[in-house]
Design a protein that fits this description.
This protein is an all-alpha fold and 379 residues long. Helix content is 74%, strand content 0%. The protein has helices at residues 10-30, 33-37, 42-102, 118-121, 149-249, 279-361, 368-372.
Length: 379
């Protein structure tokens, strides 16, 4: 059946006890409000660090011991394996020596059946073309055989070698021809480059000559333009002096009123010769200005009357709007009062419902034992 008298695993028991002690220590640390909210116990942490270092040192020494053990076992295993390989090699050498001395294949009874040199030792089925053993039924000689194959292959090899040498000569000749063509091409390119340089130099000389001719032509045009400008300025100066003399001695500056009279009637004048209005014309203008001022005063009084009427209508509209706003405010207060009454009614109804729930429905409140089951573990 089942084996119940199992030995106690002290390592597992010590690990379980260590975890239990750590859990109790964790409970005291977590459920302690002062340590949890203010700080931690430095002495306990230092002790934990010291214990951790001791544990690490113990583990390091344990690992080093295991490593030394493993190295010693590896050396022993290597020595045993080398001795076993040496013994196996000696045994194989002795076995091979015994076989080479006392178990030669040629000493076997059936050696002639699987001798690899049997065909070499046996007489060939066909010694030459006139072998009397090669009859019709021997199947050793057939029509169309290439009996001169060695000579033919030798001739073919010599022919292929001659062809290869000829191809090499042709390739060398082609290479020399290509080199000569490349040399001629390079010479032609140099000649073309020299011709291009000569053409470029000639083009530059021609362009330089054209530029010099253009500069001379532009200079001549500039001189001609300057001369024309000087003549034009002299002509303008002469015209201005003539105009000044005509104005000074003409009817315009002498203020002759007859020169301003138009040929189309006495009520029309020539504007570029007119020197001013007469006293009668000035008096007529003053009368027209007085009539315009009176008309403007009448229009201003009418505008003032219209503005007063507009202000009266605006005041009446403002009083009507104030009355309407007061009516709206009274209706708003009535609505707010009705809403407050409705809210009080709903509040009383909700309070009655809560009283019903607390007194009739929720009759099983949780006890202290229900809350004591919390915060009993750190996990």
């Amino acid at each position: 059946m089942y084996k119940l008298d199992l030995p106690v695993d002290y390592k597992e028991a010590s690990a379980i006890e260590r975890r239990r002690a750590q859990e109790e220590e964790r409970k005291t640390r977590i459920f302690n409000a002062k340590t949890r909210q203010i700080g931690i116990d430095k002495q306990a942490i230092d002790q934990q660090m010291f214990d951790k270092k001791q544990m690490e040192e113990y583990e390091r020494k344990r690992h080093e011991a295991f490593a030394a053990d493993a190295l010693r076992n590896d050396r022993i295993a290597t020595m045993l394996q080398a001795r076993q390989e040496r013994d196996q090699r000696s045994l194989n050498e002795a076995l091979n020596e015994f076989r080479s001395l006392h178990q030669q294949p040629s000493s076997r009874r059936e050696w002639d059946l699987y001798d690899p040199d049997y065909l070499k030792k046996d007489k060939p089925a066909r010694v030459h073309d006139d072998d009397p053993r090669c009859g019709i039924s021997s199947i050793q000689k057939f029509d169309g055989e290439d009996l001169n194959s060695k000579a033919r292959k030798k001739f073919q090899n010599e022919q292929a070698r001659s062809w290869h040498e000829q191809q090499m000569r042709e390739r060398d000749q082609a290479k020399r021809s290509q080199d000569a063509a490349d040399r001629l091409y390079d010479l032609k390119q140099k000649e073309l480059d020299q011709r291009a340089m000569d053409l470029q130099k000639a083009e530059e000389d021609c362009r330089r000559a054209i530029n010099m001719a253009t500069a001379d032509y532009n200079q001549a045009l500039n001189n001609e333009q300057m001369e024309r400008s000087r003549l034009k300025k002299q002509q303008d100066l002469d015209d201005k002096m003539t105009e000044i003399a005509n104005n000074v001695f003409g009817d315009i500056l002498t203020e002759n009123p007859a020169v301003a009279q138009s040929a189309f009637g006495p009520h029309r004048v020539i504007t570029d010769r007119w020197k001013g209005m007469s006293p009668e014309q000035l008096e007529d203008i003053r009368k027209q200005q007085a009539r315009q001022m009176a008309e403007n005063e009448r229009l201003r009084q009418e505008e003032e009357l219209r503005n007063r009427e507009h202000e009266r209508q605006a005041s009446a509209n403002a009083r009507a709007a104030l009355l309407i706003e007061r009516e709206l405010e009274r209706k708003r207060r009535d609505i707010q009062k009705a809403q407050a009454d409705e809210n009080r009614r709903l509040a009383s109804k909700q309070k009655a419902h809560l009283d019903f729930l607390n007194k009739e429905v929720y009759t099983n409140p949780p006890t202290a034992a229900y809350f004591m089951q919390f915060n009993t573990s750190t996990r």
